[in-house]
Amino acid sequence: MTTTFHSRLAQSPVSSTFPAAAACLPTIFLSPADVASLVRQLGLARCLRDLADAIASDFRRWPEFDKTARVAAHSPVGVIELMPIADATHHSFKYVNGHPGNGRHGLPTVMAYGGLADVATGTPLLLTELTLTTALRTAAMSALAARTLARPDSRCMALIGNGAQSEFQALAFHHLLGIETLRVYDIDPAATEKLMANLRNSGLSVVRCTSVADAVAGSDIVTTVTADKTNATILTADLLAPGQHINAVGGDCPGKTELHADVLHAARVFVEYEPQTRVEGDLQQMPADFAVTELWRVLTGQAPGRQSPADVTVFDSVGFALEDFSALRYLAAQAQRLGLGTALPLVPALANPRDLYRLLSTTEPLPPAATRTSGERTAATRRRAEVV
Ligand SMILES: NC(=O)c1ccc[n+]([C@@H]2O[C@H](COP(=O)([O-])OP(=O)(O)OC[C@H]3O[C@@H](n4cnc5c(N)ncnc54)[C@H](O)[C@@H]3O)[C@@H](O)[C@H]2O)c1
């Protein structure tokens, strides 16, 4: 479905469904409002299921991808990362940051955008928000890993860290695994308040806990999704019970962990892309020969997952570019179907592709932009005249 959509986009000067942007190649832009509308129209449960299926299907064809660990720029307060990946048809990238102290500036900890391009020509096909999408795809990935590794009779989950990602994690586990009870804890009571209000009519029974130990007690699955740029030990081995599955989401950058090393020693550990997780995951604490299994090998039947009901399993999640690739293609296909998005005049369609210079001519009309105000258009025209 997506291949047809993108090959059509790549071949035609403008898409038939999206609003036209004359004199530009057909890059489609999806805003946060577009993605929110897409999720509302399809339903969150369906989106999470579809995303988990799309990620599983792409993970099963793992060898077809040109993979690389993400490129990270660190500062004392956070990280900015670029996440590229490609198969024979599409290239995708995500820009994402992680700044745990951003709340002080009224900003989210995690913000993201990214795009999809046609490998055959390099044409950018889609530019989209990925902040909301990252929460969706991370939750779908977590639920996919748990569906593969957790005990099938799991019904109760501890959710440690009740920030921006937390509702998505809760609902993915509710809809995809049948989690009925959440035991929630955050050092910030306001975060837990917000989570409980948002999940009021979700069908989940939400129990407010007084500590990590209180939340973990009696839980079949433990999700840690905290943000702190430090080697935190949210979960220690003495809290574990036989058969638990740990979904460790927040330790995703050098010097930023959630699990005590003894938790990893006590468990069978599964990762997305080993070269990246060795540097970024809770795994960064372990020796280079500490055994882990890449999840795609379990999904393709090449490696065992959980081997007994008493196993403790850990999904040491850091977020891998392939999950965004799957999400971007899903967004593109659904936005096309629902008529969402705006044609973005990003790359000029030139009468003579070798005559780029002609674009500087003052007589050449600027490509119209659906969202540009007339004031901005005047300023842009003036800037262009100044350049010429
Ligand atoms: N693995 C992935 O694919 C992936 C994807 C997205 C985000 N993340 C990570 O997930 C984490 C959460 O992201 P977010 O957007 O929800 O951040 P957020 O800042 O909105 O929420 C984090 C919450 O963790 C709480 N917290 C911090 N330290 C805690 C502790 N010791 N015990 C309990 N709670 C604690 C904070 O009070 C806050 O409410 C971040 O570390 C982010 O980098 C990972």
Which secondary structure elements does this structure contain, and how are they paired or packed?
Blueprint: H1 2-11, E1 27-30, H2 32-42, H3 44-60, E2 71-75, E3 78-86, E4 90-98, E5 112-118, E6 124-129, H4 131-149, E7 156-160, H5 166-177, E8 181-185, H6 189-198, E9 205-208, H7 212-216, E10 221-224, E11 231-235, E12 245-248, E13 257-259, H8 261-265, E14 268-271, H9 274-280, E15 293-294, H10 295-299, E16 313-316, H11 321-338, E17 342-344, H12 374-387
Parallel strand pairs: 1-6, 7-8, 7-10, 8-9, 10-12, 11-13, 12-16, 14-15, 14-16
Antiparallel strand pairs: 1-17, 2-3, 3-4, 4-5, 5-6
Helix pairs in contact: 3-4, 3-5, 3-11, 4-5
Bound molecules: nicotinamide-adenine-dinucleotide.
Concise overview:
With 388 residues, this protein is of the alpha/beta class.
Explain the overall architecture.
The chain has 388 residues and is of the alpha/beta class. The chain has 2 domains: 2-132 and 324-387, 2-Layer Sandwich (ornithine cyclodeaminase, domain 1), CATH 3.30.1780; 149-319, Rossmann fold. It is built from 12 helices and 17 strands. The chain has helices at 2-11, 32-42, 44-60, 131-149, 166-177, 189-198, 212-216, 261-265, 274-280, 295-299, 321-338, 374-387; strands at residues 27-30, 71-75, 78-86, 90-98, 112-118, 124-129, 156-160, 181-185, 205-208, 221-224, 231-235, 245-248, 257-259, 268-271, 293-294, 313-316, 342-344. It has an 8-stranded parallel β-sheet with strand order 9-8-7-10-12-16-14-15. Strands 2-3-4-5-6-1-17 form a 7-stranded mixed β-sheet. Strands 11-13 form a two-stranded parallel ribbon. Helix 5 links the parallel strand 7 and strand 8. The two termini are 44 Å apart. Mean pLDDT is 90; it is low at 1-21 and 369-388. The structure holds nicotinamide-adenine-dinucleotide (NAD). The site of nicotinamide-adenine-dinucleotide (NAD) has 29 residues, from helix 4 and strand 11.
